[in-house]
Amino acid sequence: MLDARGIRPRHRFGQNFLHDHNQIRRLIARSGVQPGECVLEVGPGTGALTEALVEVGAHIVACEIDRDMAEIVTERVVARSEGRVSLVVADCLDGKHELSRALMRAIDERFLGKPFRLIANLPYQAATPLMILLLTHRQDCTGQYVTIQREVADRLTAQPRTGAYGPLSILSSLLARVEIFADLAPSCFWPAPEVTSSMIAIERLESPVLFDALALSAFMQTLFTKRRKQLGSILGRTSEWPAGIDPAMRPEELTPSQMLELMAMRGSGLES
Q: Is there a contact between 149 and 168 (Cβ–Cβ < 8 Å)?
């Protein structure tokens, strides 16, 4: 399809197309999506996953930044979907800290307040900010079932006192259950990436702990940019500390619940 149009995958858009249909079926099966349910897909590319979602009977909002790919998806899938696919030709993000207004408008107009899932082979550049924004800003996104770089999957599932542990691990564990359910070799994609990919399920907790996600993100950013320093060196050693937290500890030693406790008690005491 690309050859016929004289186009090639664009590295700047993170285009590595998942062409292994066994893996596409695995992703959809793990999501549990049923006929009539709502799905967000980001980065449909040539539409292989979109087509499979239509066959399941889902109602889909697909967001594609590349106009050439959007034309392919329109011809291959949208025109034959009997109105079940709405295609947004835009970046899914407005910068790294906001979801695209065009995408949010399409979700609200198409899904009419119904819950939805993200099911996608995510472009590498957009994966982390998109997943976090959906977790923290869209309560109606009940689950995310995506292919991402293994490195990002490891950060999402990392435990305290490990090198991969950080703000992404803490936010995801406070809001969701996270599971890596498959690893994909580069040969599952075209063109083949230089890294291993993983399929991951992020399923929102029914009763998560309530906290200010923006404040926690800012607090953790300050701590983890100095992750090798002791907490007392970052926050100052005076005044009280939460039970079980010692100023000699380092940021990567804190559990997610301890991070919340520390922010509540010491978040306003950051040293410059």
A: no
- Burial tier of 11 (Cβ tally within 10 Å: 0-12, 13-18, 19+): exposed
pLDDT at 272: 37
Q: How far, in Å, CA of 19 to CA of 30, rounded?
A: 18
pLDDT score, position 23 = 97
Residue matched to tokens 């993200």: 118
Burial 247-272 (b: 16+ CB within 10 A, else e): eebbbbbbbbebbbbbbeebbeeeee
Half-sphere exposure of 188 (CA within 13 A, CB side): 22
Q: Strand runs (DSSP E) across the chain, as ranges?
A: 17-18, 38-42, 59-64, 85-89, 116-121, 141-149, 176-184, 189-190, 197-204
Q: Which residues contact 117 (CB under 8 A, 6 or more apart)?
A: 31, 33, 37, 38, 39, 40, 141, 142, 143, 144, 145
Q: Which of 177, 207, 204, 180 is nearest to 117 (CA)?
A: 204
Among the residue ranges 1-5, 147-151, 152-156, 168-172, the one predicted with the least confidence is 1-5
d(CA 41, CA 19): 16
63: left (phi over 0), alpha (psi -120 to 50) or beta: beta
- Distance, in Å, from the CA atom of 230 to the CA atom of 227, rounded to the nearest integer, reads 8
Task: Residue 22: name the closest of 47, 48, 60 by CA.
Answer: 48
Q: What does the alpha-carbon distance between residue 123 and residue 271 come to, in Å, rounded to a whole number? A: 37
Residues pairing with 141 in the sheet: 116
Domains, the chain, in order of start with CATH, read 2-204 (3.40.50.150), 213-266 (1.10.8)
